[in-house]
Amino acid sequence: xxxxxxxxxxxxxxxxxxxxxxxxxxxxxxxxxxxxxxxxxxxxxxxxxxxxxxxxxxxxxxxxxxxxxxxxxxxxxxxxxxxxxxxxxxxxxxxxxxxxxxxxxxxxxxxxxxxxxxxxxxxxxxxxxxxxxxxxxxxxxxxxxxxxxxxxxxxxxxxxxxxxxxxxxxxxxxxxxxxxxxxxxxxxxxxxxxxxxxxxxxxxxxxxxxxxxxxxxxxxxxxxxxxxxxxxxxxxxxxxxxxxxxxxxxxxxxxxxxxxxxxxxxxxxxxxxxxxxxxxxxxxxxxxxx
Length: 290
Hints:
The protein is mostly beta strands.
């Protein structure tokens, strides 16, 4: 089994696995669990890190400078063991460095560092990508945390909502075979508020490539709420496996490839082109109810 690191303060305990630098649990001091438990009957993930692609590639293949490489959904990071680079009682930092194994499918010399840090009621998850290659490096980066639905402490049958800080009504895209359909659909938000319904996810995730802003609240009517802020993460997806008691709130920089579009990694929507020697940072913070 991959090793784990536990960080904690007076309010919360967070467990992080070396495999994928993936968060495994967020537990309040009174025992309430906020993160999905990874029941494989529905979905074995809990909070995977998506790199160097978000979502799927056509025929699970990307092209880099016109050369084809196999690339499974959401990339390579979530399937590889990271090394613990630093830790304290309230912080842990894991790193994945390029190797012969990664270079065979993603031919760049990179370091992906993922840090989880607690401060009072807030948890911040940060990803830093460094390009040690001699050429520009294209990639996408995304977070995929799954939070319990219904939230602990919510009254029975309470409505759960997503409320955007900017009160916008962003257009949505849907997926076709895991790829982004180019048709834009009417927003499910009204003045920034979305009442969550299970049947919204029968046809996979809702993707908001633009306009969702840099913060939102996921909450139960008259009950607990989680407050999110996003750093350098312009895209948002919401996803639920039908019948499963979780909601994925996914801030991204990069999306799945376009349906019918190019396999070239650099052509994917919102791809970052990181200069040689450059570093890019992405983060989200969630404020948890005590």
